[in-house]
Amino acid sequence: MASVEVKINFIEQVKESRRKIRDCFKKSHEALQLRESILLSRIDEIEKDYNTKTQEMQELLEALDKSKSFITDTLTSNKLKATHRGIESLLNKQIEELSADTDSSIAFEWNNQFETDIEQLGSIKLNGQTNKPPTRTFPPQVKPVIPNYKAKQLPTAYCCNNSNKKALGELNCPRGIAVHYQTGNIYLADCNNHRIQVFSSNGDYLFMFSEKMNNPVGICITHNKVFVTQYNSHYINKYELEGKLIKSVGRKGNGEAQFYYPCGLDVFDGSARL
């Protein structure tokens, strides 16, 4: 009788063990299914986000393809092309001579890019809608080379990285550049001449201003005011569009409202914040 009870107890223990094992497997399976569901959901989110970013990038590139770019140069010899893919290096590539019979983007052979400014769509039309080859170029020291592209006439100022280039319309180490969206005027930081020179959208010299300038580098325009970083003086100047100094902000240091050789300057999200 005792032997039978032992066997019954053993069988019950085996059944209980099997039940616990089944419960354990069931819980593990449910946990795996939950993790799989979370993972698949996350993958879907990543894929949607990727598709959204891809679409936004495509729209940006299409917009860039319709816009025009102004780029300043400083030092080394580079070949760059403004296309719907942005500013593209053409180093070590064959560049053909200027042609007015074909249609695409505009390429430039020139010195090292320092800063670019993309005009707002439709705010500037360079020399109307003509298809004539460029007779002048902007910025200075830019050789227009448009391989298999329709040429649009581009304006220029005269420049060499040369201390003798001090006359009006001549540039010595041009740095920052900004376009006023209403007038189309081009404001260019003539760094080594310690002044801002202003050109029309056709590249004609208009005027310059130099009050309290010391190697201007970064420049931007917002709310009809011009802001310029003074590299060697460690402050930012605020000007009227015609060049009248409004105020200066900052001094050398690393604290609040202090700068250390300030360079780039831009407007935050279309506001008045820099």
UniProtKB/TrEMBL annotation:
Species for this entry: Oopsacas minuta
Keyword presence, Repressor: no
Protein name (database record): NHL repeat containing protein
NHL repeat intervals: 169-202
Membrane-spanning parts: none
Organism lineage string: Eukaryota, Metazoa, Porifera, Hexactinellida, Hexasterophora
GO biological process, alphabetically ordered: proteasome-mediated ubiquitin-dependent protein catabolic process; protein polyubiquitination
Any GO molecular function: ubiquitin protein ligase activity
InterPro entries registered for this protein in UniProt: 6-blade_b-propeller_TolB-like, NHL_repeat, TRIM-NHL_E3_ligases
PROSITE patterns: NHL
Keyword terms: Repeat
